[in-house]
Each structure stands twice: as C-alpha cells, then as structure tokens.
Amino acid sequence: MKVLVPVKRVVDYNVKVRVKADGTGVETANVKMSMNPFDEIALEEAVRLKEAGKATEIIAVSCGVQASQETLRTALAIGADRAVLVQTDAELQPLAVAKLLCAVAKKENPTIVLMGKQAIDDDCNQTGQMFAALMGWAQGTFASKVIVDGDKVSVTREIDGGLETVSLKLPAAITVDLRLNEPRYVTLPNIMKAKKKPLEVLAPDALGVDITPRIATLKVEEPPKRKAGVKVPDAKTLVEKLKNEAKVIQ
Amino acid sequence: MSILVIAEHDNQSIKTATLNALGAAAQIGGDIAVLVAGSECAAAGQAAAAITGVSKVLVADSPLYGGQLAENVAALVVGLAAGHTHILAAATTNGKNVMPRIAALLDVAQISEIIAVKSPDTFVRPIYAGAALATVQSKDAIKVITVRTTGFDAVPFTGGSAAVESVAAGADAGLSTLVGREIVKSDRPELAAARIVISGGRGMGSSEKFKILEPVADKLGAALGASRAAVDAGFVSNDLQVGQTGKVVAPELYIAVGISGAIQHLAGMQDSRVIVAINKDEEAPIFQVADYGIVGDLFQIVPELEKELG
Ligand SMILES: Cc1cc2nc3c(=O)[nH]c(=O)nc-3n(C[C@H](O)[C@H](O)[C@H](O)COP(=O)(O)OP(=O)(O)OC[C@H]3O[C@@H](n4cnc5c(N)ncnc54)[C@H](O)[C@@H]3O)c2cc1C
Ligand SMILES: Nc1ncnc2c1ncn2[C@@H]1O[C@H](COP(=O)(O)O)[C@@H](O)[C@H]1O
C-alpha cells in the first residue's frame, strides 16, 4: 500500500507575520520557512503506518517554488521514501493544488493520501476535500485517529460537538488534526540519508493541469489593533469594573 | 443574485450558525433559499421557513443525509447548484468538510471564512491566523463560501414565511458510513454562540484543577473554552479549543485564565468585545489584547472571582 503525503512550505508558525507596506501580501523575504505543521503530523502518521507494516512506500509531494525541495528533504528525513516536486513560481490556490495532486496520484496510485487539514498561511482548509472530490474518493477530514483495516479505513474526526467516527472505502483522502500524533524529531543520520533519496521534479504543464488562479487578492492589510487595557489589583476590582465600566455583567 | 444557504441543523431545529450565514447572504442580497438535507428533518425545514429573509426552503429528507456525510451531501448540492450565483454555509466543522468538496465538483474556487462582504463578488477573510486580512475577488460563476459566524449578525429566527419544497435525494455515493458520534454533553451555553466565555490554558495544571473554572462559568452563565495546550494535555475535550485551528468566538466577555496568548489562540478570540486575562507572568502577550488584566496566581484569583460574583 502506497501512501502519498502532500507537504506545503509555509512561513514558520513562530514568525510574527508582517503585512507588506504596499498591501500586496505579507513579507516572506528573509523569513524562516518550514513544513506546514499539520503536514508533519500527516507524514508522521504515514511513517507509523509503514512501521506497523501497513504501508509499503511513502511519497511526499509538494507544489510550489524550487525552494520547496528543502521541505521535501525534511520529509525524506522524517521517513518518506521518495519525493515529487511540482515546480512553479506561479501563485497556487487550493483548487489548482488539488488538481496537481490528482495528476500525481493518477501516476502513483496510492491507497491513502494523508494531508494537513489546513495550511497555516492561507488558512483555507480546502485542498484535501477538493482532492477527494476530484478523485471521486471518500474523505475523512480533521482526523484524530486513523485505523486501516483491510479495504477500509476508520477515521475519528474532531467535530464541533466532540468526535465522530466514519468508515471509508479505500482509496481515501484523510486530512489530519493536531491530536492525531506527535511528530518525531529529525535526526542527523536521517538528514544525511535523505540527501540520497530520490526527488523528482515535474512541471504543471507536463501534468496537463490548468493552475490559473480563480480568486484575485485585491488588498492585504493589518487587522485593527487592540489596545492593551489596564491591570487591576484583584478580583474585587475586576468585578466592579466589569459591572460599572464595561457593563458586561450585572 | 440567487443564494443557496446550506443549513446546519439536528433534523429538529436550525443551528444559530446558519443565522449568521444568512446574515452574510442578506448583505450579498437577492433571493435566498435554504437547503435542509437530513433524515426525518421536516421539523427543521419548517423552522427554516420561519427565518427572516428566507424566500424558499428545500428539504432533502432521506436516510442518506442522516450522518451529514460529505460525499452524499456534496453530490446533492451539486445537483441543485444550477441557477445559483452563491452557495453559502457557516464555517462550522460541517461546513468546512462539505463546501470544498462541492466547489471542486463545480470546478470553482471556495472562499473560506469570510468576515465581510464588500460586493457580491468581493469578500474579506483573515489569513496567517488573523495576522492579516485579505480582500479577495472571485472570478467564478458560482461563489462557494464559508462564513465565519463572528463576522455577521444573526438574522432573526422568526418573521419569515417561506415556501417549503421537497427535493429528491441523490444517489448514495457508497464511499463512507457513519460509525458513531461521541458528542460532549453540557448544560452550559454553546461555545461558539455564548455571550460570555471563560477559557483555561496550560496554567490550569490538570483536568481536576481545570474544574475550578466551572463554578465561575455557572455564575456568569458562560461557556467553557480552552487553549490548544490545555486540550493536548487532556484537561478538556477537543471541542473546547479556541483558536486558529479550533473555534472562533467573539463573545461580549472573554476571560483567559492561565493562557499565554499565542497568535494561534488570539486568532480565535481577539474580536471579543471585552477581554480579561489572569496570568502570573506580567509579560504574557495576552495582556497586550486584554482590557483588564490581573497579574497573579490563578489558583488564588479564580476562587476570589467566584466569591465576588456572589
Ligand atoms: C499549527 C498550529 C495550530 C495551533 N492552533 C491553536 C489553536 O487553535 N488554539 C490555541 O490555543 N493554540 C493553538 N496552537 C498552539 C499555540 O501556539 C500555543 O502553543 C498555545 O496556545 C499555548 O497554550 P497556553 O497559552 O495554554 O500555554 P502556554 O503558552 O504554556 O501558557 C501558559 C500560561 O499560563 C500561565 N500560568 C501558569 N501557571 C499559572 C498560575 N498558577 N497562575 C496564573 N498563570 C499561570 C503562564 O504564565 C503562561 O503564560 C497552535 C499551534 C500550531 C503550531
Ligand atoms: N502547495 C502545496 N503543496 C503540497 N501540498 C499542499 C499545498 N497546498 C496545500 N497542500 C496540502 O493541503 C493541505 C491543506 O491546505 P489548504 O487547503 O491550503 O489549507 C495542506 O496541509 C497540505 O497537506
């Protein structure tokens, strides 16, 4: 059973993002980039499936600029067997990524595609669902538990009221939530080994996919800033302020 | 403009998140139809017909939609899409699950979690955990949109008298089945819709100690919330997580207890009207957004707060 894991290169979650002065986007020059945290969790799950003897091969895929090779090398160091970069400098929106991933999946025939539920840059939370739709596959989103059993996979999902478990026919697409697992650290020997693992580069054209954006970003701006308020000495003063000043309680 | 809003419901009644989505629909303007896809959901269909601004209710009543499985619901909606300019749903876990699937089947983009409508094709949505706001314009013939509930006022539950029409169920995709649900029961208000929220973080220490927030919540009629750290540590269940990747709330009053104020947490609560922070570290970033802060040990302050609330 092959597992495909799409990984996105994003601004590291610890970076304090700044909006560009001209309002065209956020500052990404000289900013630390990392693998999308949810994708690390997806990859960890794939590696565990392989360690458990369920998966035979893990293929990491990224769509984007050449530097995404770094992200793929990290994926290889975590435990992917090989990597595919669909390389382009063009802006990629979730529908385009989903189509590119479909093209790759049709070549590779994975049984499971494990991906993040959300990229922490665009905060879209779309690509997995779109990919599943285009493949005509079942989808298990926001997974906190994944159990492969024969030709089905059971996925426990984090939903608004609590948890829900669905049984999906394989092949299926699964998007992962934070509680699925805790990703391992990359070790130096594995980083060395990763350098020798295969990394294939493809072009969107060669895959026959139209990646034209459907949405135009007209403006990016900072949200209105909240001002720090006052410190109060104790609970008594707090309650009095909430009653008489803010008037939020009675 | 002809807008189709997909209702969030429990077969009996319509969830308030749908009212916020309808608030966004009203700003776009035009005819508004509501789809209630469920199993034995006639009551929810009737409830939808009474909502202000709704001109038509479509009811797809079939066991196929009992579990709200994305594969079947998406197939149904795609069949009903023709003639609509917009398809909207609240950005609940349900909405987020099904809407991108619908969009992809229609070969259109999906616009996630809008917080403002600029015009029928232009919307504002947060990116980078709310560190930036993007104004985006859709070029697609059908705009598929999820609506962040805190961005729009709810329309009234009553005042409407829409016609109710039943629509035939689609085919069963046969791809997935619902095995079960563990819904957390609580007598407190729903987190996403509560007027007051009190949230605990890693500073609460344990699930046992997290409980000291409960009497305060009870006195305030507040919902309980939590940071990711508190959920990861198992103090409370996942459905209480507030933040970039949890729930987004904007109550009248938000009280953050033992929460440092990481941007991923702020993303879920910084639009609250009044924010209170209780933290022993006076440098904690949460104080930068708090209207009222108390620096000190929460295990001393929370019981005092409970007492002061009478
Ligand atoms: C991809 C991704 C998504 C994320 N999504 C979310 C999300 O949706 N929501 C979210 O909340 N986080 C999210 N996070 C995590 C976020 O980055 C922080 O790690 C998290 O919010 C920290 O939780 P905390 O404030 O409870 O814990 P900490 O940062 O450890 O803070 C604990 C605070 O408690 C205080 N404290 C301790 N003891 C006491 C005491 N006795 N009295 C008073 N104060 C005390 C400390 O001073 C400290 O400020 C996400 C992270 C990533 C990478
Ligand atoms: N450019 C990309 N390359 C590879 N995977 C991606 C890319 N964009 C999104 N994904 C995958 O889709 C998930 C959800 O992204 P999004 O829908 O943009 O929030 C991510 O966690 C990745 O697993």
Can you describe this structure in just a few lines?
With 250 residues, chain A is α/β, with parallel strands linked by helices. Chain A has helices at 37-51, 68-78, 94-108, 127-135, 188-194, 235-244; strands spanning 2-6, 9-11, 33-35, 57-64, 82-87, 112-116, 138-149, 152-159, 162-169, 172-176, 199-202, 215-221, 230-231. Chain A has a single domain, classed as 3-Layer(aba) Sandwich (Rossmann fold).
Helix and strand pattern of chain A? EEEHEHEHEHEEEEHEEEH
* Spatial strand sequence of the major β-sheet of chain B: 5-9-4-1-2-3-10
Instruction: Name the helix and strand elements of chain B from N-terminus to C-terminus, one letter apiece.
Output: EHEHEHEHEEEEEEEEHHEHEHEEH
Number of strands of chain B: 16
Residue share in helix of chain B: 10-25%
Share of residues in strands of chain A: 25-35%
Per CATH, the architecture of the largest domain in chain B is 3-Layer(aba) Sandwich
Low-confidence segments of chain A, ≥5 residues, pLDDT <50? Answer: none
What is the typical, i.e. mean, pLDDT of chain A? Answer: 97
Count the DSSP helices of chain B. 9
**Averaging pLDDT over every residue of chain B, what do you get?**
97
State the low-pLDDT regions of chain B, or none. Answer: none
Question: Could you say which overall geometry of chain B the principal axes of the C-alpha atoms support?
Answer: globular
Task: Tell me the overall shape of chain A.
Answer: globular
Could you give the distance between the termini of chain B? Answer: 52 Å
CATH topology of chain A: Rossmann fold
The CATH class assignment of chain A is: Alpha Beta
